[in-house]
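Tip: read the tokens left to right.
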């Protein structure tokens, strides 16, 4: 069993609310690490992990929440794709940081129901 499968199994053991809080925490960590020029690999890994968290959760929430999560997943994919350029730009890293914090706050609201 690979590491991703172990993460998935562990993640899916939690309640939906706990999973959403885990996603919010990941996004908060993205916000923190994106600001630092040295946080590149960690930021990229957390963007990817957040996408998986959404994939494993979106089907179990109300349709309107699922739509919001899938839209977030698309935005995360775009940031991942642009990461080589973003990583070199303090302005772009700051933008990702601010946006990730907003996403984290919104996902926490969703977790609170």
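Filled-in amino acids:
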């Amino acid at each position: 069993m690979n590491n991703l499968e172990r993460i998935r199994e562990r993640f899916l053991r939690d309640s939906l609310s706990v999973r959403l809080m885990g996603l919010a925490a990941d996004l908060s960590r993205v916000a923190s690490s994106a600001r630092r020029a040295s946080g590149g690999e960690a930021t990229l890994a957390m963007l990817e992990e957040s996408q998986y968290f959404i994939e494993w959760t979106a089907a179990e929430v109300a349709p309107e929440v699922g739509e919001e999560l899938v839209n977030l997943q698309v935005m995360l994919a775009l940031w991942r794709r642009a990461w080589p350029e973003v990583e070199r730009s303090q302005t772009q890293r700051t933008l990702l940081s601010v946006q990730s914090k907003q996403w984290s706050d919104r996902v926490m609201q969703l977790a609170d129901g």
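The mean pLDDT is 94. The longest helix spans residues 63-86.
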